[in-house]
Design goal:
heterodimer, A: mainly alpha, 14 helices, B: 6 strands
């Protein structure tokens, strides 16, 4: 072999080999599954409509809040609570999409960290100067803070109304309530307008199999939400599966005392809908990770996973349906039902994290793998 | 027979192939260390984690905090000295020890090709690789008549490297003789379609026949390439296959430096003529630098090929080394159960890219009051460690002990550690992996069969 040829061959080898180390998003291929259509379905039929709805809900919440502050009476309080719950339910369809602008501004940390920190809230109110966007205030803002402000500031509605009307500091109480709700609305507007602006196209065109492509980020966010936001936060932590004793005060909607189950069921529905590509507030389905998984497993001759996942989600829902409307009550009366719900949710975690990720073979090349 | 062996051992050949091999090895190792550091992996793999997974019996090998950087620096420097042929023996020894130390610090990062580097550097330590074209011998390559002359070294020293490479390939090929690889084309059927975003090849990777073609040709390649490289008439074609094969694997999989190491290593199979040309080429490149090297050289009288006084020592040591290389991959036969499932005897056996395996392991801590809670693995492990731990029994056991110790220290009494774990192998749906009724904290690590691993419930036929 001529030395020059050898050098050429080695150079070519190194050049080709090194190219693959760079990361390129957005490629066009013609294999049978249309990942771009999956992303379009997620963006146009699920994420953006849900954000739109949340934005509308928060607008109504703002209006009710203004009305309540102008006239703090029982009727207006009831109305305000109702709007809060509407928005909170819609939020369950939004929390998992911690991607793009939402990720940059730590949207979900400013919307739904619970338990809320009453001391921080009271200190903020007392000082009258606060930066609600500060990470220190993540547990003093968002839905859980409003939950406290509308239900937990006193033991009965009369005293709660007094808190906003006759109390010595009523004005600062009103101001904080107002600021927190306005902030939630502003954040949501920021995230939504990014989606309706340029981000949507960037998002749907990032179809590669890289650490930073939308196809991979989205499914990682989804699994993270399922495991942490739903399985652990809503059920596992209150049930005490990560602590020596149950922690009834960690439930979602702690102060309103009746919505934790409703919120958790809605979160589970959102998971189900997203996995199966079901349109937000609709029944039509489009391309989804469920269809992607089905296609891949049909092609490589392995058994059906999509049905297994959907059956398991149904089993978890059935178990959750048995629970008390207020998970805190459930934890205190019969926690075994709580842990049983957790166990059912955990089985689906395994299917998502192991079986689905193995099927998708998502690129997580943090280090070298083995060669041959 | 005995005389045949004797004649073989006394046969000498040009030192050029070994010199080129030494230079290639040193340069690639230096580059690997720099690349490793540039990726920030020293920090993320060895300094950030609060806990490291040790090989059985090597828990005393731990990262040294920020001094870990020094081990890497030492290793890189030794590689450079090896390439230059400067104080070769001691440099090779330092390289072998530092590299192996790095690998032993945490088995999370275990790769066959790291093990290959350790084994190869052990072997190289005994070989006269700096006998030619090295700083060590800079002053003494000129013979009495003034003509440049390539020193002679024993033929077996070059052949031993060929043997090691041959073992690596051939055993990798044997390991592919199983039904998942050949009949189901697994795990390539999972891996290749996910490479849809690779230019030109992406679409091809979706086709089923391609998966089978890759599986079968990979197996045939591994089994036969050593022989095709040995045989002069097929050598060039075989080398082209080496290049194509390894470049392809590099494009398809994140396997770092390994393909280049193997491509350059395969040059050892060529005759000394090629190596002489490579050396004269490098010599011309380095000519302007020569005056910097000369002061470093040890001007000494050329010795006879190979220090004979070591022969009594080196040959038996290498004999044992190769016997181990040949036997170690078969140790799995001593364990019951499916090797891919239990991984008992899986490592150090050139089993590469055979499994797509993922797991999830949820640990439960129970104290004497019967109170229990689950552990959030992310509190203790990096994502990479958690991933590796979740499907390898020896990791699971070691981590269970770490957790047991941790919570005992926190004041829990009579701690028991259980695990609820699932593993999916080569596309099969996930199954329970470890018996969740077994208190792992009460089980000692050993080379005994781990009876607490649940049965595989399927069969993979073949070796």
């Amino acid at each position: 072999m001529k030395l020059r040829n050898l050098v050429l061959v080695l150079f070519a080898a190194i050049a080709i080999g090194s190219c693959s180390e760079s990361e390129d998003d957005g490629v066009t291929t013609t294999d049978s599954f249309d990942r771009k259509a999956l992303l379009e379905n997620a963006a146009d039929n699920i994420i953006i409509p849900a954000l739109q709805d949340l934005s509308d809900d928060l607008n109504s919440l703002k209006t009710s809040k203004d009305l309540f502050i102008a006239t703090p009476n029982q009727a207006n309080l009831d109305e305000l609570r109702e709007k809060w719950l509407d928005a909170y339910m819609t939020w369950q369809y939004v929390e998992m999409f911690n991607i793009g602008r939402a990720e940059e501004i730590l949207y979900s940390f400013q919307m739904n960290v619970y338990p809320t920190n009453v001391t921080d809230i009271q200190n903020n109110i007392a000082s009258a100067s606060y930066d609600l966007t500060s990470p220190n205030n993540n547990d003093a803002v968002g839905f859980p803070a409003v939950d406290y402000l509308l239900y937990g500031t006193a033991n009965n509605d009369v005293d709660i109304l007094n808190y906003y009307s006759t109390d010595f500091s009523a004005a600062s109480h009103q101001q904080y309530l107002s600021d927190v709700i306005d902030q939630m609305d502003a954040l949501t507007t920021t995230v939504l307008s990014d989606w309706t602006g340029s981000y949507r196209d960037t998002f749907v065109n990032s179809t590669g199999n890289t650490v930073t492509s939308s196809v991979n980020l989205l499914i990682n966010d989804f699994i993270f939400y399922y495991e942490k936001g739903l399985r652990a936060n809503k059920v596992g932590i209150p049930a005490g599966v990560f602590s020596t004793t149950p922690l009834a005060d960690r439930v979602e909607g702690l102060y309103s005392k009746e919505f934790s189950k409703e919120l958790a069921l809605e979160g589970l529905q959102a998971v189900d809908d997203f996995f199966n590509g079901r349109a937000y507030n609709g029944t039509t389905t489009g391309l989804s990770y469920a269809s992607y998984v089905t296609e891949l497993r049909t092609n490589n001759g392995t058994s059906d996973l999509t049905t297994a996942i959907n059956n398991q989600l149904a089993a978890a829902r059935a178990q959750m349906n048995v629970l008390d409307d207020n998970f805190a009550n459930q934890v205190n009366t019969d926690n075994t039902l709580m842990t049983r719900t957790y166990d059912e949710l955990q089985v689906a975690t395994v299917l998502f994290k192991i079986d689905m990720l193995q099927t998708l073979n998502i690129s997580v090349d943090f280090v070298d793998a083995d060669g041959d | 027979m005995k005389s045949k062996i004797h004649t073989y051992l006394n046969r000498t050949t040009s030192a050029a192939p070994l010199a080129v091999f030494r230079i290639g090895f040193g340069v690639m190792m230096l580059y690997s260390i720099i690349r490793f550091a540039a990726h920030g992996w020293i920090n993320t793999l060895y300094i950030e984690p609060q806990f490291h997974f040790s090989y059985y019996g090597f828990s005393w090998v731990q990262p040294l905090g920020n001094a870990t950087y020094l081990i890497f620096a030492l290793c890189g420097l030794a590689a450079l000295f090896v390439a230059l042929g400067y104080k070769y023996r001691i440099s090779m020894l330092v390289f072998f020890l530092s590299f192996t130390y790095i690998e032993l610090m945490d088995k999370t990062t275990y790769l066959n090709h790291y093990y290959f580097i350790s084994a190869l550097s052990f072997l190289l330590f005994f070989l006269p690789a700096a006998r030619y074209f090295s700083i060590d011998t800079l002053g003494n390559t000129v013979a009495k008549d003034g003509k440049k002359q390539t020193p002679q070294i024993p033929q077996w020293t070059i052949d031993s490297i060929k043997l090691l490479l041959g073992v690596v390939y051939f055993y990798a090929g044997l390991a592919k003789l199983n039904s998942d690889w050949l009949i189901k084309a697994m795990p390539l059927k999972i891996w290749l379609p996910s490479k849809y975003d690779i230019p030109l090849l992406g679409d091809l990777m979706q086709l089923e026949w391609v998966h089978y073609a890759f599986s079968w040709s990979g197996m045939l390649y591994d089994l036969f390439i050593p022989f095709l490289l040995l045989y002069k008439r097929t050598r060039i074609v075989a080398f082209a296959a080496v290049v194509i094969f390894h470049v392809l694997t590099r494009v398809l999989f994140p396997i770092g430096m390994f393909p280049f190491v193997m491509i350059v290593s395969a040059l050892i199979f060529f005759d000394s003529g090629l190596h002489e040309r490579i050396i004269s080429y490098i010599r011309r490149l380095l000519l302007p630098l020569k005056r910097f090297f000369i002061p470093l050289s040890r001007k000494r009288i050329p010795k006879k090929a190979m220090e004979l006084k070591y022969k009594r020592f080196i040959l038996p040591v290498l004999g044992v080394f190769f016997a181990l290389q040949l036997l170690l991959p078969w140790r799995y036969l001593a364990y019951p159960g499916e090797l891919f499932w239990t991984e008992e005897g899986y490592r150090f056996s050139w089993r590469v890219m055979l499994m797509e395996k993922m797991g999830s392991a949820q640990f439960k801590i129970v104290d004497e009051d019967g109170k229990s809670f689950y552990v959030q693995n992310s509190d203790f492990l990096t994502p990479f460690q958690e991933k590796q731990m979740s499907y390898q029994p020896d990791f699971i056991l070691q981590y269970a002990h770490f957790l047991g110790d941790h919570f005992t220290k926190q004041g829990h009494k009579n701690v028991a550690v259980y695990v609820d774990s699932y593993v999916a192998l080569n596309g099969r749906l996930s199954q329970p992996y470890v018996d969740k009724a077994v208190n792992l904290y009460a089980i000692k690590e050993s080379f005994q069969h781990k009876s607490w691993i649940l049965p595989f419930n399927d069969e993979i036929k073949g070796l």
